[in-house]
Write a structure and sequence with these properties.
Layout lengths: L6 H15 L4 H5 L5 H8 L7 H10 L4 H5 L2 H17 L3 H17 L4 H18 L6 H12 L6 H8 L7 H15 L8 H17 L3 H12 L8 H19 L3 H11 L5 H19 L1
Helix pairs in contact: 1-3, 6-8, 7-8, 10-12, 11-12, 11-13, 12-13, 12-14, 13-14, 14-15
Length: 290
């Protein structure tokens, strides 16, 4: 008889997600702990699992109980914060070592797609600082394929896309941006619109760097329609910045950008944002000088 779902049964589904992310089969995970059939039923929420067996099952997938219980969004936020801190501090050696270590783990077992995702995010930030791409062409294509398969986009997908775009083919970035817009058109209450906006602004910057100005303009137009800017100062500055980049790409005039830089210069709380903008603009000037 199937039991009713409760928070304990939901642990099975959470375990299944962690197991699959690590590329471990049910046979391997259940070895010397329980039967594969019972593990399968637990992962479907049909039965409970004694606590002592849960600990052994976690051991079989090399995961601590603390990590298992930690909220997924909390873990993701901690990971992204660490990457961003290394990026801000220009610690390229640490970013490179971290990314290469994760890539080595992934290449040992290409079912570990979650490891590839983390490696890609780190490599994306590293690429922005050094112009060195750590990913093989096959790895980048695998990322594109996974993103192209998404039909209904949610927050984690959008955050991921927003942080790996430099590694992707620019035309793919453009089409994926449009896919996100189509996916959320009637579901804006199901996603964080800030995540969508920032992913689109990142995409526009990538397209400008690739000299795909018309496509960048289309993506910026989509971002304006999200009805976000009246309440979000940071996002409004990011929009002004990308609009300034577009103006420069078309006319080589930087008046809009210099006006924005002057405004941010007297706002101490936006020191890092100003630094990021100036760094990005220096890259654009080099690209369009060619």
């Amino acid at each position: 008889m199937v039991t009713s779902m409760n928070k304990y049964n939901n642990f099975g589904l959470k375990y299944k997600t962690a197991r699959k992310e690590k590329g471990i089969s049910q046979e391997e995970a259940s070895k010397n702990v329980t039967s594969r059939a019972r593990l399968s039923r637990w992962e479907r929420g049909e039965v409970t699992m004694p606590f002592e067996l849960v600990l052994q099952l976690l051991k079989n997938i090399n995961m601590s109980y603390a990590d298992f219980m930690r909220d997924d969004s909390e873990k993701e936020s901690h990971f992204l914060a660490r990457v961003q801190d290394l990026y801000i501090d220009n610690k390229t050696a640490e970013l490179k070592e971290w990314a290469k270590d994760l890539l080595a783990q992934y290449h040992q077992n290409t079912n570990h797609r979650e490891i590839l995702k983390k490696a890609a995010i780190i490599a994306n930030f590293y690429l922005d600082l050094t112009n060195e791409n750590l990913l093989a062409i096959s790895d980048a294509r695998e990322i594109e394929l996974q993103l192209e398969k998404i039909e209904t986009w949610y927050d984690n997908d959008i955050i991921y896309f927003g942080n790996v775009q430099l590694l992707l083919n620019p035309i793919s970035v453009y089409h994926l941006s449009r896919n996100i817009n189509s996916s959320i058109y009637d579901r804006k209450n199901e996603v964080n619109i800030e995540y969508v906006f920032n992913a689109l602004i990142n995409a526009a910057c990538v397209l400008i760097k690739s000299k795909l100005v018309r496509q960048a303009q289309e993506v910026v137009k989509i971002s304006r329609k999200l009805e976000l800017l009246g309440y979000h100062l940071l996002e409004s500055y990011r929009l002004k910045y990308v609009e300034g980049l577009l103006a420069y790409a078309q006319t080589k005039e930087d008046k809009k950008l210099q006006t924005l830089f002057s405004k941010l210069a007297v706002l101490p709380s936006f020191d890092q944002l100003l630094s990021d903008f100036k760094f990005g603009f220096s890259q654009i000037k080099e690209i369009y000088a060619i």
